[in-house]
Q: What sequence folds into this?
């Protein structure tokens, strides 16, 4: 019999077949360790035992009772419910069970039982429909705090606790502690196995919270410290040649003239924030150690211009630079921007995508090797082993969290460097405003430049909530804009009947997956209105053929396609100043940050822009988020609210973004804990010795289990 390890697939656990494993994978649970660390998001407290006598409609009650009448199935009823009365000595109440014929065999008059359920009315009589009921002798009074897990369609909630218990029993001893002894002692923490058992099966809510806190420490240490250890970029021996002379007087007149020509191609005046960011980058590039800077800015703040100007500086100094984009659509757009901005400068710009023709790839790779190509823009295609550069000095990653750590190292560590340390300057851009503490954990000690200001001329976007998919407002606004010669986006949370958008959140909506409008259903709906016969309409989603995607986007940006029905593949970077309507169907399925990114695709021209958030959800959380979007256009404010409402895992969306969910820690409520945890580990490392080596090894091994394979799963 094979040994089951924490890294084993979930199918190693008895009772989990391939169908169940596929459903668990939707919840980002693929290994035994994932199963153990898949924590409850809340608990049902059944320990507060009450009396039926005090119950009224809507109450959720737990009570011991006696079966008063024999369970009876009504054979004349189409639904065939099973009904019987129970009493607690003060009052009796009707229990009604649908699709549960086994009840008649399991319970008899006189049985002592424990019941939990929600009180409803049946005519003038109180009843409980499909309540939990078990014989009193089989109910452990210490197991009345019931965990509640995020679920997905087809997965029964009763299965998860059973599978998790089996996983902990089999592999709990393999869990390694990564929390420094000073915190373990001060907080009174227990072994990892015991902590996970208590968080899943607590005796009371206090025990559950203490276990969650311990696992939160563990999680923040693994993410905050583990990423640094894996990146191998923290060595004191790191060196990189300065790109820019420390004195502007050292620049030749020719270089100054070429730089002036490049900035003259901008066509707009840089904002103060852009100028400040460029100056901070210039200062970093004057040093002989690798720049390690994060540039974060709100939607439409002009980060791309900062990136291209930085690459231009590097090229003018005779060095090469790379801009990594997460999608071919965005890479092509960056390339178009760069060629326009660098026109007449003599700087050779190339674009390399996965679907670039083989003959063109061969020529581009040759230009990279001989140094003729100075500004290189592309996707993951630039991360293959056969890519060589003559003098690569700068790597810019757009939305770094979409690229794995080891993938980026292919560029950051020069192949001719025998020490294998970072010797290339590193700049990271993100359009997702990240609160400081989250940035600290995700990006370590990177210096940060923040661009909040919007370039002059950007239009304020009118945003409103549409509570019905059948509302005439949706087509009325689209038609009005199309008749004015403008274009429209319609974003859907579903590709087809079987596949959700990777960014769609499944566990925070009261609308089932089957109720979500897919891109193809939206296309059919527009077909029925006659809009698509009058205005060229295309459907776009991430897993389409690359050439097909690029062709559709190019025709949309050129104005040939008037309506683009899409998933969130257009979320980051797509720029079409003529598109001024954004309709987001099932908007409750997306986080605030994703909604803000989508909204940022419009309002880039001179016309008035409108964003409609369409959702038929009536959950309080969904309505609160829609209200926030309508009231605020500040990405930093919305990002903070997103963390507060949903937690950092969903802040970034899904595994597609390369950052898995934090299951115990919440970087909004646990901000102080995040700094405290990483500081404690760093103190141990500074002291050195056996404790430091043991802790470093433990963090490395547990990081591999918890995060590394997910960070690389792109």
A:
């Amino acid at each position: 019999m094979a040994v089951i390890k924490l890294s084993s697939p979930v199918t190693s656990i008895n009772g989990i077949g391939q169908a169940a494993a596929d459903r668990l994978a939707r919840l980002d649970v693929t290994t035994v360790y994932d199963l153990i660390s898949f924590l409850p998001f809340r608990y049902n407290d059944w320990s507060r035992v009450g009396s039926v006598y005090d119950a009224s409609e809507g109450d959720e009650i737990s009570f011991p009772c006696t079966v008063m009448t024999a369970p009876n199935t009504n054979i004349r009823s189409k639904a065939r419910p099973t009904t019987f009365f129970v009493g607690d000595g003060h009052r009796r109440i009707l229990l009604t069970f649908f699709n549960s014929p086994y009840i008649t065999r399991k319970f008899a008059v006189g049985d002592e039982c424990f019941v939990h359920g929600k009180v409803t009315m049946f005519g003038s009589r109180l009843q409980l429909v499909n309540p939990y009921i078990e014989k009193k002798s089989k109910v452990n009074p210490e197991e009345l705090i019931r965990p509640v897990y995020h679920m997905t369609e087809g997965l029964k909630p009763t299965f998860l606790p059973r599978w998790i218990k089996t996983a902990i029993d089999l592999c709990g001893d393999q869990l390694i502690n990564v929390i420094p002894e000073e915190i373990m002692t001060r907080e009174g923490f227990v072994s990892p196995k015991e902590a996970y058992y208590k968080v899943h099966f607590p005796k009371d809510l206090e025990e559950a919270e203490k276990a969650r806190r311990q696992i939160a420490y563990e999680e923040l240490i693994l993410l905050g410290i583990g990423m640094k250890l894996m990146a191998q970029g923290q060595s004191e021996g790191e060196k990189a040649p300065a790109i820019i002379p420390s004195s502007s007087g050292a620049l030749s007149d020719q270089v100054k003239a070429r730089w002036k020509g490049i900035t003259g191609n901008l066509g707009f005046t840089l904002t103060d924030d852009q100028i400040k960011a460029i100056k901070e980058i210039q200062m970093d590039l004057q040093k002989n150690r690798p720049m390690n800077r994060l540039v974060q800015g709100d939607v439409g703040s002009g980060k791309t211009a900062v990136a291209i100007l930085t690459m231009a500086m590097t090229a003018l100094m005779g060095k090469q630079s790379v801009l990594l984009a997460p999608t071919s659509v965005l890479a092509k757009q960056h390339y178009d921007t760069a060629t326009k901005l660098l026109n007449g400068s003599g700087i050779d710009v190339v674009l390399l995508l996965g679907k670039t023709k083989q003959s063109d790839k061969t020529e581009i790779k040759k230009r990279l090797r001989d140094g003729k190509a100075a500004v290189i823009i592309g996707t993951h295609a630039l991360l293959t082993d056969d890519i060589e550069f003559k003098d690569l000095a700068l790597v810019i990653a757009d939305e770094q969290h979409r690229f794995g750590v080891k993938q980026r190292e292919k560029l950051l560590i020069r192949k001719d460097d025998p020490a294998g340390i970072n010797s290339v300057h590193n700049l990271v851009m993100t359009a997702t405003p990240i609160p400081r503490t989250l940035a600290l954990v995700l990006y370590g000690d990177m210096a940060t430049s923040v661009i909040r200001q919007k370039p002059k001329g950007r239009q304020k976007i009118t945003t409103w909530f549409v509570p019905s998919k059948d509302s005439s407002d949706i087509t009325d606004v689209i038609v009005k804009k199309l008749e004015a010669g403008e274009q429209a986006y319609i974003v859907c949370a579903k590709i087809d009947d079987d596949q959700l958008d990777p960014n769609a959140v499944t566990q925070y909506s009261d609308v089932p997956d089957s109720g979500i409008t897919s891109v193809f259903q939206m296309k059919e709906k527009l077909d029925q209105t006659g809009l698509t016969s009058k205005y060229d309409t295309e459907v776009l989603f991430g897993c389409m053929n690359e050439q097909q995607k690029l062709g559709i986007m190019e025709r949309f940006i050129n104005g040939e396609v008037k309506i683009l029905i899409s998933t969130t593949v257009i979320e980051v970077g797509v720029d079409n100043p003529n598109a001024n309507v954004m309709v987001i169907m099932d908007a409750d399925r997306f986080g605030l940050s994703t909604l803000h990114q989508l909204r940022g695709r419009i309002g880039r021209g001179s016309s008035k822009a409108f964003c409609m958030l369409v959702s038929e959800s009536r959950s309080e959380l969904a309505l609160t988020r829609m209200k926030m979007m309508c009231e605020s256009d500040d990405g930093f404010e919305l990002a903070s609210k997103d963390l507060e409402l949903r937690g950092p895992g969903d802040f970034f969306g899904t595994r597609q973004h390369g950052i898995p969910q934090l299951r115990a820690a919440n970087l909004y409520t646990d901000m102080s804990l995040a700094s405290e945890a990483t500081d404690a580990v760093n103190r141990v490392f500074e002291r050195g010795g056996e404790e430091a080596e043991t802790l470093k090894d433990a963090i490395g091994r547990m990081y591999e289990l918890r995060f590394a394979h997910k960070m690389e799963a792109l």
